[in-house]
Amino acid sequence: MKNNHKKMSPQFLKNGFGMFAISISAGIIINLGAANASAHGFVGDRFFPPTIATDDPFAVDELLLPSVSHIKSPGDDGPVRTTDIGFEFDKEIFPKFALGISGDYLHLKPDDGPSVHGFDNFTLSAKYQLWQNDEHEAIFSVGGEWEIGGSGNKNVGADSTSTFTPTIYYGKGFGDLPDAVKYARPFAITGTVGEDLPTSADNPNALEWAFALEYSLPYLQAQVKDVGLPRAFKNLIPLVEFSFETPQNRGGGPTTGTINPGVLYENRYFQIGAEAIIPVNSATGNNVGAVVQVEIFLDDIFPKLFGRPLFGN
What's the pTM value of the predicted model, to 2 decimals? Predict the structure, then answer.
């Protein structure tokens, strides 16, 4: 981990922004109803949802607003309760190439001390969809992140050191499995592998690795067999996410991470997700947390403004 508060609030969590955004999201939900997922995140017949702990491989227009998490984790001076409200905005600049920005507002409450709050460092990202195969529901992308050192509040542990994380992204659906195992076709996996490269020798390099295993009930209904699911379940994708960080030098300590079981509700215009946050070892923590996230598909809501690159066709 790059700094202490990130041990309290796992860095894999994407970001959010507060009650104002929740109200906007709720309004969208009420007004748009339950249309089916559309062109956002498709490879062949497979819709890959934006996952919470694992960045997806798509370079598209989207708005994550908000993501709200809460967990109690170990700290240098004792356990700390961390509430994280974050956001992320991504825009396709050239065909299959997108830039993004994300940020987190943190509220830290130590067991033995006063509360502090403020923004963590902001992060810029870039992603390029390098290859995809529609028949085999596979996609591979490359990119990276730049955590801008000194852009956050030191009171919440924002590091003055910048960190660059070159990353690969992948996704694979199992719709090409034989008929004998057709009910396994709704399974899919997405994941990332990145390397933290801090600009200060005081911080360790670290391998960031994460993956999500999901089972798409919409895919089961549409591509395998209509099993007559009740309406409330037809747009659900149960999943389990795994997110880890392995320091490699400079006394970075053991691997830390979490396992996040949860479910996503998909609509053509938005996604709502909720997961538990389960630490994998005592170095990560001893308490279970939770995260709720709303992802807004700008390209489907505002097709005249989004869903296309700024430059090129």
Answer: 0.86
